[in-house]
Amino acid sequence: MSRNGERIVLETQDLAKNFGGLVALNGVNFSLRQGEILGLIGPNGAGKTTFINVVSGVYMPSRGRVIFQGKDVTFLPAHVKCRLGIARTFQLIHPLTDLNALQNIMVGAIFGRGLGLREAQREALAVADFLGLRDPGRPVSELTALEVKKLEIARALVTRPTVLFLDEAMAGLNIDETEEVMGTVRRIREEGVALCVVEHVMHVISKLTERVVVLDGGRVIAEGPYEEVANDERVIKAYLGEEG
Amino acid sequence: MPALSCKKRIWAFAIALLAVAAVIAVCKPYVLIQGLQRGGLYALIALPMALILGVVGIVNLAHGEFMMLGAYFAYWMSVSTGIDPLVAMIPTFAAFLIVGALTYYGTIKPVLKAPELNQLLVTFGLAMALTELANLLWTSRPRKLPLPYAYSSATIGHVTFGTFGFAYLAGALVLLLLLLWFLRHTRSGQAALAVGQNPRGAALVGIDVNRTYLLVFSLSVALVGAIGALFLVGHSIFPGVGSPYTLKSFCIIATAGVGNLPGILWASVGLGTAEALVSSFRGYGGWADLVFFALLIVVIMVRSYRKRVT
Amino acid sequence: MRHLRYVALAAALTAAILFPFYSGLYLRQVAIIILIYMGLALSWDMLLRSGQLSFGISGFFGLGAYAAVLLQLNTGTPPLVTILFGGVVAFVVAFLLGIAVLRLRGMYFAIVTLALSTIFMVVAKNLPSLTGGVAGKMLPSVVFGGDSVKTYWLALGVALLTVLASELFQRTRVFYALTSIRDNELVAKSSGVDVFRYLVLAFAVTSALQGLIGGTYAQIYGFVAPEETFSFTFLLLPMAMALLGGVYSTEGPVLGALLLGALGEYLKLHLPYGHRLVYGVIVVIVMLGMPRGIVGAVRTLAWRVGRKGGGR
Fold first, then answer.
1. What's B195-210 look like in SS3?
2. Chain B residues touching residue C288 (CB < 8 angstroms)
3. Domain spans of chain B?
């Protein structure tokens, strides 16, 4: 599998989003290549989650385009984009509490991939196994923090996405748990999924990603391998500005 | 709250409105008078609901029932002690502050954190129970107080009309001003606004969220109870008298926009006038009730469509 | 264990079908009204499972009733067909209304459905040439000529149809769709669920059932009139039944219907008025203390006991 995949699988052109008077995204040009693990970082309020929301169809952009595998998918609703192969996890964990863990995953299998109930269950079990989520018939309330994170990823992964956005999938995990999830992310990439990882923990970004995009104030301010970006003046200023 | 685009839009709307009002005043003066009076009553009843719904986000489907109970309370006070219902508004207000507080602790507070559905269901059950309770206690026989001043009239040109109805409009204006003053210039009012916008944030800043909800809810119930006393003057009352007003209040709030208190006055008068207009055409009187609901559905459809585009 | 459940179900079904043969006229009539309410309670719950609260039960019930009666009076269609027609009319109206309104949810949707009953009532009162106005319309004869055994089986059939629909909603992909929508629409949407489509269909199907039941009611009692047919009791009582028995299930509303139906009969003997007070209080108490109703409480208890005993 080519690590520096040539083919661009997802790109956005001049993507913008306003909420009334608030400008959340201000012309984002972004590309994600096949087989890539891309890091998306930026200070709080930079627009990372909004970006994911617009790309995945939860919001409609005010300007710009989203191109997925060569097709313009800008205004397609979220459930259609999911079926096409754009998946994402949620930052604030939202497991569906009226369903047990396995059923949570099945939702993605049934509606994201159009499987029948039996097949969906088999696929859900397989994905749970792949992620190391044991005994998935348990109610969601019994899962540990790490298991809930895995469930969140499982739900997105079972839809067999081409592109997967992980929104702070490692927040709140300890060192061992973080290592485990990082390994999982690499295994997901080996299955052929292009990943975009949003994280605040820089150690993770530096070890996991080949390329990093830095967002600030709704714009891309830097792009490149982590070492370059981390020493970029503008990036340092953006983060310092946050602390000040 | 949706941002109103520009002042021009408001001005154009206001002018169009005045033009329509002028036309009606000339062709069918009674319609305008009725519209103002009825609209005043609708606004008066809708404002307390707008307070809890628009400001702190609590839905109370038993709103009309509290008005009905207030009316009965004033009625019995009047019958047993001889005082005028207008005077009885004060003890009614006080009594219903307590009623509101009890209702809050008993039924609202427990479901505040639960989904909106629970509030709807609980207050719906409460509304039904209260109506039926009134039925059991006082039967469905309508009651009315003989009050000469309720029938006072005046004449302008060749048009003679009842004047008491304008008390509702005046009351609505006064209430609106009082509420706006309360929300903007008292600490409790500002707390209420803060809690409505962001309960967690408000708590972090040190606002006693529970006390705010309690205060605003009790205030709303007390107000609508006292309004019931005022209602008693101009109408005959029966157990089911309050319930249409709950729905109509909601229609008005939805039309004006949740959180837009002054808009309630406009919406009420507009709807009251539309209702009176429909009533004025002989044979269509029965359809007047639908005006509100037709408008509600139109407003919701428009908002629904707009949402589709975002 | 599973076999026991099937045996129990089969036994209950047989008992229900054979009911007219070991009960008198009075009990049969009580059973008929319970079955009607049961269907309404179930159909209300079916929509609730999607997270949407509809106050439109009495509206669509009345709509179906009027549709059935008017069809028969104006075209002489056989009674059973008019019942189906009631369901179809309700389906179409709900479908169109749903498309228009269901992008807004929660409170707005609930209030619109609350207004429905009043709207239909006003329309019924004000089109006397079509609907008979305030006096309503009477059928020349009730279905099956009033034979209470056949009428009971009709009501039972309609109730069983609703039970079947409810089970379909519980055991097919519809369950996953509605439950995920109810739990978190955003997540459901992002997992591929077409939320709007499922909501509109759920609303249309459940309203169709209510219309069907309304048509059945009209044929059994032989008349429709604005105040009686659109009465809020047809709204409040099914809700109380579903809440008491336990929402989000088939067993819950069925149990609630049996319990409150029996209670209602008892009340009628000792308390001529004021039933709505009891039902209203039940709704409030259940919402405050036992939101998942009896079935929910039993399930939680069983789960807790199971954990203490087994412990994985």
1. HHHCHHHHHHCCCCHH
2. 107, 110-111, 122
3. 48-148+159-236
